[in-house]
Amino acid sequence: MSHTAHIPSHRKPRQRASKSALRAGVAGGVLSTIAVAGAAGPAQAEPVTQTIEMPTITAGLSTAVAASAQATQQVAFDLEAEAREDAAAESAAKKAKKAKAEAVRKAEAKKKAEAAAKAKAEAEAQERAERASRTAERTTLSAPSGSTASSSGNSAPASAPSAAPSAPSSSSNATGSAAAIVAFAQAQVGDAYVAGGTGPNAWDCSGLVQAAYRSVGIDLPRVSQAQSTAGTQVSLDALQPGDILYWGGAGSAYHVAIYVGGGQFVGAQNSSTGTVQRSMDYDRPSGAVRVL
Known about the structure:
The protein is rod-shaped and about 165 Å long. The protein has a domain at about 145-290: Alpha-Beta Complex (endopeptidase fold (from Nostoc punctiforme)). The protein is of the alpha+beta class. α2 packs antiparallel against α4 (about 170-185) and α4 (about 170-185) crosses α5 (about 205-215). About 25% of the residues are buried. It contains 6 helices and 8 strands; from the N terminus they run ααααββααββββββ. Mean pLDDT is about 75; it is low at about 140-175. About 55% of the residues lie in helices and about 10% in strands.
C-alpha cells in the first residue's frame, strides 16, 4: 500500500483524539466553573419550605352541597309561590269588599229613590187636593163680590169674615178687582214661604202681592221696594181692601202684604209661618199704597 493511502487512516485517530480532548476540556471547564462559583460564593440560607394542607372535597361532600343548594332553591320557590298566593288572596278580598260596598250603596240609593218617588207622589196628590180646595174657595169668595160692593158690609161670605167690615169703603169700580185680589190672597193662606217664590204653592212677600194683582190684569214690580211706591200713598187710617201694606220706608221697604179689610192682612211672612192672615196689631206696617 502506498504512503499516500495511509494518510487517511493515520488522520482518523488524531481527529477522534482531538474531539475527545475537546469534549473533556468543555466538561472540565464547566465543572471547574461550578466548583469555583461554589467555593467563592458565601454560604446561603436554605430556602424555607411551608407545607399547606388543602382540604380534600370528597364525592360525598360534593353531593351534600349540591343537595343543600337544591333544597334552598326549592324553599325559595315555595316562599315565592306562597307570597303570590297571599297577594292574590288579599287582592280578591279587597275586590270583594269593594263590590259589597258598591252593592250596599246601590241598595241604599234605590231605597232613597223609592222613598223620594213615594213622597213626591204623596206631595202631588196633596197638592192636587189643595188646588181643588182653593179653587172651590175662590169660587165661593168671588161669587158675592158684586153684592158686597153695594151692601152695607154685613153680607160678606161666611168663608171670609175678616173682609166683611171693609166693604162699605169700596167704590163700585174698585171693589170688584179689590175683592178678587183679596180672594186670591186669602186662598194662598197656608202656602209655604220660599225666598224668590212666585207660586203656585210657595211665595215670598212680593211674589204673592204681584200674583194677586196679576189675577186682575195689573202688573206690579217684582220686589217690595218698588211695590211700596207703585201707587198712591194712603194713610193707615183710610185703608181699603186690596191696598198694599209695606214695612220700612217707601222705596226701601223690606216687606209687603195685602190689606184684606177688618184690620187684617195676608202676607207671605217667613219660612216659619208661611203665608198667613194676621191682624195689623201683630206687626204694624209703616205705610200703604193704593193701586186700584
